[in-house]
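Action item from last meeting closed. Structure (257 res):
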């Protein structure tokens, strides 16, 4: 039987060409969670507006009650607007220029979108961000794509885990070398799922290799190619007795931008 998988050199060339497409595909997979997250403040706005209409219809509306309802409408509108703003930033064409970046701030910008997807799937997502990290010169959009891809993979890995055990942690840390100097920034995504079988770990980052029904097998390959283009590394490690952790290291900025 003839295989549809191209030779290795062509595989990695294809990975590079498909990187922008994969970015949109990842966000597409998270669309249901994002829609649910936006719908919550919109529902609240409608409820408070109806309350205002009811208060005014009474003829003896308390100005304080009206003011409180209008303030809630404003707050919920700003909440929905912030989610939309974050989403627009993620879907715009990334700037080709690498810029000096605070990694913790970069992850905070992803928080609303990542939490939306996690909540929809009853996953507890928390951020554990190490303070005072050195900055990194990077393509902001590309690294955000890597993080979102790893978060999405973690959520999928928890699908068959009881809801009370669905935990996902996004961490940053300073990676310290043998002489106790910070040499790189480490970003990791760990989950409490079943982990990856030892027999499959060597193939995780191989293009077109997938354990998902209907999966393309390009997400982790693209993520690794992006990280390596930044002079970093991306690897898998088990997380305790159960669970998985994907961790990537990025060299910090030497002497500024």
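Sequence:
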């Amino acid at each position: 039987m003839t295989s549809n998988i191209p030779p290795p050199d062509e595989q990695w060339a294809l990975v590079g060409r498909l990187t922008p497409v994969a970015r949109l595909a990842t966000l597409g997979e998270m669309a249901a969670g994002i829609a649910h997250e936006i719908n919550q403040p919109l529902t609240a706005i409608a409820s408070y507006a109806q309350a205002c209409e009811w208060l005014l219809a009474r003829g003896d509306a308390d100005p304080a009650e009206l003011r409180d309802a209008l303030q809630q409408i404003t707050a919920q509108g700003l909440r929905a607007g912030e989610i939309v703003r974050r989403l627009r930033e993620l879907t715009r064409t990334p700037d080709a220029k690498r810029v000096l970046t605070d990694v913790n701030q970069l992850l905070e910008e992803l928080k609303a979108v990542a939490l939306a997807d996690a909540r929809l799937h009853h996953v507890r997502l928390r951020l554990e961000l190490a303070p005072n990290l050195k900055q990194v010169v990077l393509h902001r959009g590309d690294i955000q794509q890597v993080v979102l891809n790893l978060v999405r993979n973690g959520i999928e890995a928890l699908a068959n885990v009881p809801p009370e055990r669905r935990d996902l942690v996004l961490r940053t840390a300073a990676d310290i070398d043998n002489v106790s100097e910070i040499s790189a920034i480490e970003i990791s995504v760990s989950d409490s799922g079943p982990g990856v079988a030892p027999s499959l770990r060597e193939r995780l980052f191989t293009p077109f290799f997938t354990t998902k029904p209907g999966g393309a097998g390009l997400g982790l390959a693209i993520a690794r190619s992006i990280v390596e283009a930044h002079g970093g590394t991306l690897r898998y490690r088990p997380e305790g007795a159960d669970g998985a952790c994907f961790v990537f290291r990025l060299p910090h900025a030497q002497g500024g931008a």
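Note appended to the action item: The helical segments are 8-29, 31-58, 63-91, 103-120, 140-157, 198-201, 219-229.
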